[in-house]
């Protein structure tokens, strides 16, 4: 009886650690630092000429769009991206980012930008796992107080 419950307990631990590996931090999200509002009737080719970027670069920066036909007028395209480097990790003790964000003086929006494995509500953290709480540099529109002049 004891042996069976020990085995069951161990398999729960193994399952929990394999789940934890899946959600482990892979680092900050690629951030869009410059955007462009698509005018009426524009195609990826037109925009490529205007923006000085080829079609594959436009698609890489905007994975949701299709370059077949005209682009939806008014769509906001990303035209320049930045891959920040994480400079500090902290260990989660909770499943939300509230505690870590306030401890490290960053907003929830920062926290989500710094960790590409958390959801948009910052509610799927895994206790005991490292999360990025600081990156090198500021970007336009960064809500971090230290980036506001
Ligand atoms: C498209 O632009 C990217 C970024 O400037 C460049 O790395 C790539 O070689 C270009 N591809 C072609 C087919 O010109
Ligand atoms: C933060 O943790 C991630 C995931 O373990 C790791 O890849 C990264 O190198 C760490 N970064 C720093 C600055 O310690
Ligand atoms: C957090 O940021 C605010 C605004 O810049 C600053 O006044 C405050 O001292 C910071 N707190 C900590 C703990 O760093």
Give your account of this protein's structure.
Helix content is 33%, strand content 17%. By secondary structure, it is an alpha+beta fold. The longest helix has 21 residues, at 2-22. It starts with a helix and ends in a 14-residue tail after the last strand. Among the domains are: 31-82, Membrane-bound Lytic Murein Transglycosylase D, Chain A (Roll); 85-136, Membrane-bound Lytic Murein Transglycosylase D, Chain A. It is elongated and about 50 Å long. Residues 1-22 have low confidence and may be disordered. The structure holds 2-acetamido-2-deoxy-beta-D-glucopyranose (3 copies). One 2-acetamido-2-deoxy-beta-D-glucopyranose (NAG) binds next to helix 3. One 2-acetamido-2-deoxy-beta-D-glucopyranose is lined by residues 54, 56-57. InterPro entries: LysM, LysM1-like, LysM_dom_sf. It comes from Lactarius akahatsu. Residues 86-133 form the LysM domain. Residues 1-25 form the signal peptide.
């Amino acid at each position: 009886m004891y042996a069976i419950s020990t085995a069951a307990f161990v398999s729960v631990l193994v399952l929990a650690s394999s789940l934890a590996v899946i959600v482990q931090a892979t680092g900050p999200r690629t951030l869009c630092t410059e955007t462009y509002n698509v005018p009426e009737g524009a195609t990826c080719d037109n925009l490529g000429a205007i923006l000085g970027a080829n079609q594959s670069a436009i698609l890489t920066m905007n994975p949701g769009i299709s370059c077949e036909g005209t682009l939806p007028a008014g769509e906001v395209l990303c035209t320049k991206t930045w891959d920040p480097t994480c400079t500090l990790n902290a260990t989660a003790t909770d499943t939300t980012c509230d505690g870590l964000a306030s401890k490290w003086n960053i907003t929830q929006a920062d926290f989500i930008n710094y960790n590409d494995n958390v959801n948009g509500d910052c509610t799927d953290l895994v206790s005991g796992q490292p999360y990025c709480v600081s990156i090198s540099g500021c970007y336009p529109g960064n809500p971090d107080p230290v980036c506001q002049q």
